[in-house]
Amino acid sequence: MSILLGEKEYFKGVGKIQFEGQESDNPLAFRFYDENRVIAGKTMKEHFKFAIAYWHSFCGSGLDPFGGPTHHYEWDKSSDVIQRAKDKADAAFEFITKIGAPYYCFHDLDVVDQDNDAVVYKKRVETMTDVLKAKQDASGVKLLWGTANLFSHERYMNGASTNPDFNVLAHAGAQLKGAIDATIALGGEGYVFWGGREGYMSLLNTNMKREREHFAQMLHTCVEYARRNGFKGKFFIEPKPSEPSKHQYDFDSATVIGFLREFGLMEHFGINLEVNHATLAGHTFAHECQVAADAGMLASLDANRGDAQNGWDTDQFPVDVYEWTEAMLILLGAGGLAGGGINFDAKRRRNSTDMEDLFYAHIGGMDTIARALIIADKITQHGEYHRLKAGRYASFDSGKGAEFEAGKLKLEDLFAIASEVQPVQISGRQEYLENLIGRFI
């Protein structure tokens, strides 16, 4: 077998997934995602930079708090740590190339099992970095971003960079170094920080000010190391409000932007947004996209969804075309993603146990997002949506409104204007705009 497929074929009976168009009845084909179709000056492949998430796709077991694993993998059977990791890499690149995604992304622990000895684990990561590099060279698949899992090991029960024990923080630093080294060696276009346990369970035992300062110092330390060692890509922070921590310091887009500004990190970072995290923060996905876009930091996206009946991070594959159409309108308005792409931080359901289910899930997600981009572009070209939205603020485009925006009016001036005019009630036309988007869908 080739370096690409390894010793065996894991996804037998599935060939390269092709675009067949909207009329196709083939469940293993794309209906909307045509990677070569040009929308707003870029191909879909360039717009999305779809990346397969190593963790859920090739490590997820279907485990939940009430039952054991239901997903059992042929590539997970060897008793040898490195051989098992190599088998997983074979399966991963077979899937990635068959689904036709140009990128992948990973946590360090996804690629190879962790070891308590930092030196041993460093060697494991370096070995697998060489394996992944050979896979990339053989397939043309690229690394969108890497990251370190600083939340699963028991030592991180009180956080990693924000842990009250410096020795734990040092282990986090060692792990970050290894993940950054791997990302650089693999030509990763970005590096993500997700503070899975960078937060608190109780303020009774937490010095929040000190923990936030330690978090910022670790980010500065990582940026300095990566730049000194040749990393040219973008750093991302992925907001999440809670779970597993009660309160996380990267709560939402606005919180992250404020944090980066406070600690002088804005120039190095963009935001990697996740749909389900927006939901947990009490926001819509569109809200989080707009906040990031307004700050020039809409950089990368985790594509998934939550469940309205479950108050946790269910990480289901995206199917809501309306939700993604709203997001694509914002993305097009921002000129695209600033340095990142779209990865599927999503997992098959516990009872979806056929290997083909992994293909169905990704095909559906990629088609949902592609369809949303097509619709958003049609809405943009039609023009009415943007005209109506801009028209609500027409009073600021000239006259006294424009002078206010320019900072030329004093509070006394506003009083004088108010004493002479009365505002006329103007409808927000929300239902009309909702129907307008629905019409294009």
Please provide a written account of the structure.
With 441 residues, the chain is an alpha/beta fold. It is 44% helix and 11% strand. Strands 5-6-7-8-10-12-13-14 form an 8-stranded parallel beta sheet. The protein is globular, with a radius of gyration of 24 Å. The model has no long low-confidence stretch (mean pLDDT 96). The protein is built from 16 helices and 14 strands. The protein has helices spanning 44-48, 54-58, 81-99, 108-111, 118-139, 166-185, 208-228, 253-262, 275-280, 285-294, 321-333, 356-382, 384-391, 399-405, 411-418, 430-440, and strands spanning 18-19, 29-30, 38-39, 42-43, 51-53, 103-107, 142-147, 190-193, 199-200, 234-237, 247-248, 269-274, 298-302, 342-343. It folds into 2 domains: 18-382, Divalent-metal-dependent TIM barrel enzymes (TIM Barrel, Alpha-Beta Barrel); 387-440, no CATH class.
Q: What's the rounded overall pLDDT mean?
A: 96
Count of spatially separate domains: 2
CATH architecture of the largest domain: Alpha-Beta Barrel
* Distance separating the two termini: 45 Å
Secondary structure: elements and pairs:
Layout: E1 18-19, E2 29-30, E3 38-39, E4 42-43, H1 44-48, E5 51-53, H2 54-58, H3 81-99, E6 103-107, H4 108-111, H5 118-139, E7 142-147, H6 166-185, E8 190-193, E9 199-200, H7 208-228, E10 234-237, E11 247-248, H8 253-262, E12 269-274, H9 275-280, H10 285-294, E13 298-302, H11 321-333, E14 342-343, H12 356-382, H13 384-391, H14 399-405, H15 411-418, H16 430-440
Parallel strand pairs: 1-2, 5-6, 6-7, 7-8, 8-10, 10-12, 12-13, 13-14
Antiparallel strand pairs: 3-4, 9-11
Helix pairs in contact: 3-5, 5-6, 6-7, 10-11, 11-12
